[in-house]
Known about the structure:
six-stranded parallel β-sheet, 12 helices, binds thiamine diphosphate, 8 strands
Amino acid sequence: MQAAEETLLSGSGESREQLHRYLFQMLLIREFEERVGEQYTRAKIGGYCHLNIGEEATIVGAFSAIRPDDYIFTSYREHGHALARGIDPGAVMAELFGKVTGTSKGRGGSMHLFDLKTRFMGGYGIVGGHLPLAVGAGLAIDYKGGDEVVLCIFGEGATNIGAFHESLNLAKIWRLPIVWLCVNNHYAMGSPEHKDSAAEFLYRKALAYDMVGERVNGMDVLAVRKAMLEAVRRAREEREPVLLEADTYRYKGHSMADPGRYRTEEEVRAWMARDPIAAFKAKLTEAGLLSADEYTQMHDHVLKIVDEAVDFAEKSPFPDISTLYDYVYASPEQR
Ligand SMILES: Cc1ncc(C[n+]2csc(CCOP(=O)(O)OP(=O)(O)O)c2C)c(N)n1
């Protein structure tokens, strides 16, 4: 037991407390998203709604490697990203419910979570549309001589969009501190990646821009963390943008409206057998770093947080109709 513990700790350099935190965050994302799915079917949440279930290790590993003053630009599949950034689960759920206490005052919904305090810059619905925005943030950091990094997250489908190529090109020419994280869940809506992309390995698209590209097992939280720490270091210290591709899977359909019939049950089951939470829990348990009681307590705590988030969202008011035109244009009085 002791030997295994030492291997795990020396391999990752992590304290028991940190390892527990990763498991806790992955569980929080899983349970939060399960509840979101339920609330959607109860019509408490409307519009588009994309879940992160299956992608927890990629998310937690990635967010564990950035600093509080780094910037995040991400896609519409971002509830788990907001939670991993430490945004209050109640405010995230309230946003999904369209309530005034939500992260975007109830005006953004599922695809447009935003939180300036944690430099969580959204939440964007246009595939690849936020990549040029990340370039802008990277340029601003560079212009001001800062040492923050931009983490820009998108799906593999976005790597076939023109803005992806323009953004990587400019990031490299201007040597901007950006980590491009491609969450490769292998499907862009109903299209498998081989139907969308001429290149088989997406991380190799970085080579076109003389950029470092790397692929990591996105079902392994520590592997993602390790790869991200190095990518972030390169971006921050060497001003080398990096493209990191995380190999992962979404268990559910593209959105709540998609039953996902374009995938075989065997394929989904095979990925679920590699479940990032079950695998990490087993690893910690075998290493003597997690007892059954500790896990139960952690899980109960997560369920309580999710219950409270739903309760908060439920009890919060909708924005008043008189504020309908507020925030349509940026103005200093309405921050
Ligand atoms: C420019 C643009 N084209 C099409 C769409 C419709 N659309 C929404 S999500 C999506 C698939 C994107 O897949 P991917 O980038 O792999 O991300 P994932 O949903 O798998 O996280 C498409 C085509 C869109 N939102 N924007």
